[in-house]
Amino acid sequence: MSRAQRHCDTGGSHEQTRELRIDRLFESPALAGPSILGVKISPDSKRVLYLRGREEEKDRLDLWAFDIGTQHARLLIDATALAPTTELSDEERARRERQRTGALSGILEYFISPSTGAILVPLDGRLYHLDLADDTSSGGSTLATRVTKIGPSSGAATDATFSPRGSLVAFVCDQNLHMTDLTLCESRRLTTDGGGPIKNGMSEFVAQEEMNRHTGYWWSPHGSHIAFARVDESRVSLKDRFEIAADGIAAHSQRYPAAGQLNVSIQLGVVAIASGHTVWMDLGDDPDFYLARVGWLPGGRSLAVQIQSRDQRRLDLRFFNIETGSGRAILTETSDTWVEPHDELSFLSSSDEFIWASSRDGHRHLYLYDIRGQRLRQLTAGEWDVDDLRGRALKSIDEKGRWIYFTATAKDPTERHLYRCPLDPGPTGNVDPPTPQRISHEEGLHSVKMAPGTDFYVDLFASETQPPRLDLR
After folding, report:
1. Considering just the CA atoms, what is the radius of gyration of the chain in Å?
2. Which of these, 52, 64, 68, 50, lies nearest to 6 by C-alpha position?
């Protein structure tokens, strides 16, 4: 891979002062320049998109785009132009609290259609659709004419996503799962019994707070089905919690599953988009478990579900047939203390194999399995961890060249670097995992987004001496 680097100018300036006061650390403009979050690469690999704080208001985020061809950045969506004032629903406020984004405002998340490159922005309970095919930055259409408001006529929409083909949008409103057809401009509910203690397509408190799962539904690869969680909180006791602010203390009642008490009841269903028919997965007779992760196998006919025991010492990976609801255990992780749920499950599209992460040897490493759950080989090994502070550590799989790209602590526990290693054993037949090849070079923390085809990557880099910097490599 070429080591050529292009700096993505994010438009920030750095303030120099003689005296650094404690209160100055939290004021605007930010000492390190505008904050950069939510870095993504467009499906056509022509743009790098990101959320950036304002110079005069560091915690209010707008959506920016860096054009790889021209190497220029520009404001793509001004949050204030979409919603001059933001009034959050209780559900969105709780969601931001669980995601640790309560102090931020403006655009906190956005989604890119994998097929069309259109952008979906949830803001102030509404959904805004931007079609980049109509983007005429040199003149012509304005922001107001390029953005379309979609979603519910009443209620607040949360957790909105595109279908894989980009023609549908799913979201949660009033504790039910909804869908909008962008072609027909029609919306309909996919579930109807949400309300009170019943939540459809939403993650429960424990999943959000302790397991880093903030969604409760998952599109199938072809967009013909959606798997969703149905959460019943009726058996969870109410607790009072207190929010302490500068102007007073507010009390709120919340269903909180304390240790040793009853947890939520949870079901996993798969609804067909065309017919609306739902098939429920057979999760077993023991209702006291955690639905840790849900995903799809490449063909779109089976679910891959991580189910964790209540004591969190066992984690099962099960595959479910979406037509019958029947499931089978593929592999199990156990520990005398704790097994951590993770997002490091990736299926290969050109072979019946998948990559799985495990800490069974004391460090998190990657393993290659066949679709039946037979372990083929260990891909990484050593006194270090495959890890990323901002998300999934497995960044990309080059199936043609049989390489995997990932971030890890192999150089130093205080640093994160991008590495690659082969999926297959070497020509000598040695089955021991090879020493990974390091790709990033500057000492510090590298958080990476890779382009399709692994031709280039975007590197959000920071160190003890370097504030966060965005590079195209």
Report:
1. 23
2. 68
For the stretch 392-412, pLDDT in tens is: 999 999 999 999 999 999 999
* Residue 358 to residue 366: CA distance in whole angstroms: 7
In angstroms, how far is CA 315 from the centroid of its own chain? 21
Closest CA to 397 of 446, 445, 355, 340: 355
CA–CA distance from 471 to each of 42, 165, 214, 444 (Å)?
16, 30, 29, 14
Helix, strand, or coil (residue 175): coil
How is residue 285 written in tokens?
């007779």
Q: Exposed (0-12), middle (13-18) or buried (19+): which is 389, by Cβ within 10 Å?
A: exposed
Closest CA to 78 of 100, 42, 52, 56: 52
129's CB contacts (< 8 A; 6+ apart) are 118, 119, 120, 147, 148, 149, 150, 169, 182
DSSP 250-299: EEEEEE---TTS---EEEEEEEETTT--EEE----S---EEEEEEEE-TT
What is the rounded average pLDDT for all residues in the chain? 88
What is the predicted pLDDT for the residue at 23?
Answer: 85
400, 349 contact by CB (below 8 A)? no
Residue owning tokens 């790889």: 68
Half-sphere exposure of 111 (CA within 13 A, CB side): 21
d(CA 446, CA 444): 7
Neighbouring-strand partners of residue 444: none
Inter-CA distances, 356 with 116, 211, 310, 318, 332, Å = 30, 18, 22, 13, 11
The 8-class DSSP code of residue 30 comes to P
- Tens of pLDDT, residue by residue over 231-276, are 999 999 888 888 787 788 988 888 888 888 899 999 999 999 999 9
Task: Give the contacts of 324 (CB within 8 A, at least 6 positions apart).
Answer: 279
pLDDT tens digits for range 183-222: 888 899 999 999 999 999 999 989 998 899 999 999 999 9
Q: Is 70 exceeded by the pLDDT of residue 47?
A: yes
Give the DSSP letter of residue 333: E
- Lookup: tokens for 124: 């102030």
Q: Which two tokens stand for residue 117?
A: 């490159």
Query: Is residue 114 over pLDDT 50?
Result: yes
**DSSP class of residue 195?**
B
Give the predicted TM-score (pTM) of the model: 0.88
